[in-house]
Amino acid sequence: MGVTWSKLSHKAKQDLWGSSLLSPLFVDDDLDTLSSLSVGHTILPNFPLINHKAKVALCYEGDVSVVIPKIGTVIFKIGPQKQFLGLKRMNTAGFSFSKALHRSILEHSNDDHFVVDTEEMLVSVYSSDDKLQLAKEYLVRFVVSKMNGNEVIIKSYRAVSMQVLKRSKVVSLERHHAKHDTNNKNAGVYYLLNNVLNADSLTLLRSVSFFADLSNEKLVRLADLSTISVLAPDVVIFKENDEEGSEMFIILAGSLTVSVASKVEGEPPLVLATLQAGSCFGEMALMTRVPRAATVTVQDNAMLLSIERKAFLDFLSDNQEVKKKLTHLLQERLMKKVLSSNIVPFFAAIDYARIMTLSERFFIEDRFISGDVIATPETYDLKFSIVICGSVDVVVENHTDDGASATSSSSTTLGPGSYFGRFGLLSETKSSRRRRSSVVARTKCVLFSCSKEQIEAVIGTSPVETAEMFIRWLREKCELQNVMAHPTARSFLVEFCTAEFSDENVLFLLDVERFTSLTTTTDHRDAARHIVETYIQANAPKQVNIDHRMRDAIEAHYAKSMSSSAVDLKEARDTIDMSNAMFDAAREEITRLVTKDTFPRFKRAPQFQTMLNTFGTYTHARHISLQDAYRQFKENIVLSPRNGNNGDLFFKFVKILETVNKHKNRRATMFREANGGGGGTKVAIER
User: Fold this and answer.
1) Rounded to whole angstroms, how far apart are CA atoms 190 and 540?
2) Which of the following CATH numbers is that of domain 481-614: 3.40.50.150, 1.10.167.10, 3.40.50.1100, 3.30.505.50?
3) What pTM value is reported for the model?
4) What percent of the chain has pLDDT over 90?
């Protein structure tokens, strides 16, 4: 039938299970029970490695062909290994196993199959067809380790087909008699208890914001494809500025340190935090191509659960509703990090609900490499971007007021936490209108961006709303134009001026502003008459202080406009356009006087403080130095602390970690004892 019974003693089976690095993680029982319940088999070529009725089989020798979706056919060569070249290469290529898997562990053969060398493989039936008595899906787990090294990496893949290529040896846990549990109708099946990926592990996964809303079924599906790493002290998980992270990690047991290089040459790295069991780091790598922002090093013996970006994105491609939720969550999370670190000061002037609504319109740009042009002078104002990681060079050319020629140029390098582009009217100043800016990626970088249209759709372009944002943002540093543009704010200014019997200048500016907004000839002339008679004429009750030549020019312009009679709509429009310029010179002069004299006095008056209290800061607003803002932003991107007391849960993981290390030491001892180190575990058991 393709399967023969292998005569393995109780002690031999104990040695197999006791030297396995997979059994402590995925099979919940003591060695004596495992040895009693397991059966040894030799599987002949062209037959399945595991019976559909069996729940788990540990293969310790043989060649097995496995079809893994989106990877292809993988041939596992299972047996004692003196060294694992793949892991050595992995250490130089970064900790990401996905890179090692494709570059070194999986080697292409001539027929385009992948080949994996491993000491053991644990197979369980993921789904089966009882009528056909066939397994439909398998869960394949295998080990990549150094015999005497500090790393043990355990990979998991879902397989849709499996076949033995070369005589293979397994110990399997199969059906046993109902007498073991007469009260349980399902007691005839010895089932796999997944110690690490069971409800306890799901509890930790669910504490990660990315996974909080996933159903148990989807979360288990994702967790089954995770990687388990058992690491010794001083192992570096990844280094600061490593090109591109591709894994998210959860600490199941042990502790790790997070550090960044000191800015002072010769000084030791700066330790940002010590992460304990339950902490999660690297979530950003799942959905963005973010270079590592810090170095993470194992402090004590540690066990980590990790999920790779490729597996995660494959999972999302089959779960579009989950992808949509997680994309929204990433946008929201990045915006909250921006707000908490205050790297964009004027965001503090925008209502929290509105800014979080805007976060949904932001998008991640993570494909820029060094030298890529991100924005030209023609496109610079079309979006607003925050640098999440990497750096960009912004080249600015200052032009004359008419934009005809450049007067000077400068270049600035922006790093994480910096921003560029246009954010509505909040990022526009008089000097910015004379600038022509372009942006080029200095290094590989990731941006958090939003288009001009989306910003205007959510934030709006209303002068009144914009003025209020400026007042909330700038506070004591707000300018006259901000106060004059907002009805409530300017009422405090008018109140102050009236109390000083000097309200003519402010009222003049308000009336001129109203005058320029009128659209009919009749209204225009009535407003012009009011301004001339109230503020300009020699006997005007609120005469403003302007040069007599300016006063004469206004009166002459006024007389001419009042005597003209428009006969059609075009002439009426031309008349309004011409008369709109009537008070320009006077408005400029009075604005200068109010800015220089009246407004500074207003800022020292009680009315100004009352105005600021009316436009109180939002609860999310924080006022810190720009340097501190950049530092906090980087730390926020790096760290993801976890709350809650899971002492009992983590104690379980610590015990599992201890057992894995015990099995690893037992395996190393058996390897040394087997014919001087040449025969491996199999010889030690069978001799």
Assistant:
1) 102
2) 1.10.167.10
3) 0.67
4) 26
